[in-house]
């Protein structure tokens, strides 16, 4: 037992060191991401776009995709994720700026229940349900999903910036797929396979490296995006997707069935997440790079009719932040 606890402490020390390292390196990841995205855009707009047919159609579409890519990246990096110890007003009421989507009226035919509020043992702040304490930020984040320095965001993904995070991934996959799909002939030309001269001002080796990186990242981010979209359709955050299997097992051991109280059906879950459709903004906000606040301020949640908590488990069964990251009970 002593040996196990020693190993556990070593793991925790390594974990905290990694937290400090990734937190300190976050700004450099952001800089690297900006450089790589800009290199890809430069290669696409100077090499690939001039050769595309129907320029009156393709040029505006490509610029719209690029605008969404850059601006959603800007929003996810600069918009606070939502802190439990701050005022309850959403950012569009407290943060000055431009490109805010116009607020819609109150949602109809949806039950919005006040969140249960606890107290964080780590920072002492009030902790509404779906809130978790981030070890790197050292604050409680509303609807915490994950802390994201390695992918170039350098902050938590939470209630107020998760929409922009997912839309950034969508437009990243779309843009890199277009780069790979429309640029393969230029890739072969840069490699010298075609018997023609390279007539662009960018060196061919730069285009080759960017093309390869774009193709690899397209696949990697598409996999991550699929995971997130499936979780959104099930009304689960990344943290909850790890917790719910344990809840299902515990409910099954008691002869009951676990039911996620936030799950209103895949279509409505997606509408609530993106705040579009009959319950929110126009679907056009999915193709326009606007800043959109969520349907809630994190102190109330849309829930299944008749459920105020998850069915099949008790409040005492729900994991705390310490339990979620422990190796030994």
Automatic annotation (TrEMBL):
Q: Which InterPro entries match?
A: Palmitoyltrfase_DHHC, PFA4/ZDH16/20/ERF2-like
Q: Which PROSITE patterns match?
A: DHHC
* EC number, UniProt record: 2.3.1.225
Q: How does it sit in the membrane?
A: Multi-pass membrane protein
Q: Please provide the record's keywords in A-Z order.
A: Acyltransferase, Lipoprotein, Membrane, Palmitate, Transferase, Transmembrane, Transmembrane helix
Compartments annotated for it: namely: Membrane
Listed transmembrane segments: 28-48, 54-76, 165-185, 205-227
What are the protein's GO molecular function terms? Answer: protein-cysteine S-palmitoyltransferase activity
Coiled-coil annotation: which residues?
none
Question: Can you state which reaction this protein catalyses?
Answer: L-cysteinyl-[protein] + hexadecanoyl-CoA = S-hexadecanoyl-L-cysteinyl-[protein] + CoA
UniProt comment concerning the protein's domains: The DHHC domain is required for palmitoyltransferase activity.
State the family it belongs to: Belongs to the DHHC palmitoyltransferase family.
**What name goes with this protein?**
Palmitoyltransferase
Native organism taxonomy = Eukaryota, Fungi, Dikarya, Basidiomycota, Agaricomycotina
């Amino acid at each position: 037992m002593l040996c196990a606890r020693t190993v556990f402490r070593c793991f925790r020390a390594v974990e905290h060191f990694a937290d400090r390292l990734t937190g300190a390196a976050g700004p450099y990841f952001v800089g690297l991401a900006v450089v790589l995205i800009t290199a890809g855009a430069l290669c696409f707009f100077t090499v690939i776009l001039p050769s595309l047919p129907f320029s009156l159609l393709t040029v505006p579409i490509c610029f719209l995709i690029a605008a969404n890519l850059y601006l959603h990246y800007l929003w996810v990096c600069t918009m606070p994720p939502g802190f439990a110890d701050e005022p309850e007003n959403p950012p569009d009421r407290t943060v000055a700026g431009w490109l805010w989507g116009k607020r819609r009226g109150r949602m109809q035919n949806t039950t919005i229940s006040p969140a249960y509020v606890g107290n964080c043992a780590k920072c002492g702040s009030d902790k509404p349900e779906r809130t978790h304490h981030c070890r790197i930020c050292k604050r409680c984040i509303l609807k915490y999903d994950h802390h994201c320095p390695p992918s170039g965001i350098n902050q938590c993904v939470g209630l107020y910036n998760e929409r922009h995070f997912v839309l950034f991934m969508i437009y990243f996959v779309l843009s890199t797929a277009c780069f790979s799909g429309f640029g393969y002939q230029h890739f072969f030309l840069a490699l010298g396979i075609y018997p023609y001269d390279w007539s662009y001002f960018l060196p061919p080796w730069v285009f080759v490296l960017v093309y390869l990186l774009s193709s690899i990242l397209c696949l990697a981010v598409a996999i991550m995006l699929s995971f997130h979209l499936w979780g959104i359709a099930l009304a689960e955050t990344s943290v909850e997707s790890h917790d719910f299997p344990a809840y299902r097992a515990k409910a099954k051991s008691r002869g009951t069935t676990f039911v996620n109280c936030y799950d209103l059906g895949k279509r409505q879950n997606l509408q609530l997440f993106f705040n579009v459709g009959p319950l929110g903004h126009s679907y056009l906000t999915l193709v326009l790079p606007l800043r959109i606040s969520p349907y809630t301020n994190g102190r109330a949640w849309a829930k299944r009719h008749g459920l105020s908590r998850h069915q099949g488990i008790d409040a005492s069964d729900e994991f705390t932040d310490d339990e979620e990251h422990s190796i030994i009970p």
